[in-house]
Amino acid sequence: ASDAFLTRYGAMRKGLQNRHAPKRRDLVGLLGSVANEKEAQHCRTLLKDFRVHVPKLEDARPHGGALIRATVRAGALSEALKLLSEHRELRFPPTLGSTMLLVRQLGVAGRVDDALAAHGILAEASPDDGRVWSVGFLETLTRALLKGGEFTRAAKLFASFREKGCTPTVHLYRLALGRSAEGCGEPDTSSDALAAVSVLEGGMKADSVKDDVCDRLAAQAREAAEAASQAAA
């Protein structure tokens, strides 16, 4: 941890131990300045000390958002996920923006289960917020699943987001069908990928999405699956 960070952290910690709450702006400033895992851990301690000064949970929204954002930017993804999972204990409501950043970076790192877990924590904490089931989250999670060849889970994810009122974009259908078509040509994933294509086509039909590119990709997927099954035979 840097000297400047430790000086500010030490002063705030001492103040809190003497029942003197820091100014909200100063706290958010320190949380948002985290540059590594150790500093993020110090800030977790700070939030624990600060809990008694949070009468209304909504007031603490900027705290968690600033700390998780900074922790993700510092590359400490496991620590950021831990902070998010402890949001009740640390008394802050998870924010959409910081959770999206974490989900995206976990997906890029190939940590699909952790990305889904982070989204699940947000969904549980914000049951009445439809934005949790946005196309942005669906696309980020779908990309991560398809990159890992997880066609069955990607299809289930699509279905569950649509049940929550999300309408996938044509761009997202193209992305998912394109990757599924590739999967249809690989013997190990062919049947799962073909089943995913059927789920995607069902979603398009229900959402009245008409797109020539999607139709072409679905046809390519079927041809690839047929060729893969003949090759396997």
From TrEMBL:
The keyword Coiled coil does not apply. Keywords: Repeat. PANTHER family: OS03G0856100 PROTEIN, PENTATRICOPEPTIDE REPEAT-CONTAINING PROTEIN. This is Pentatricopeptide repeat-containing protein. It comes from Hemiselmis andersenii (Cryptophyte alga).
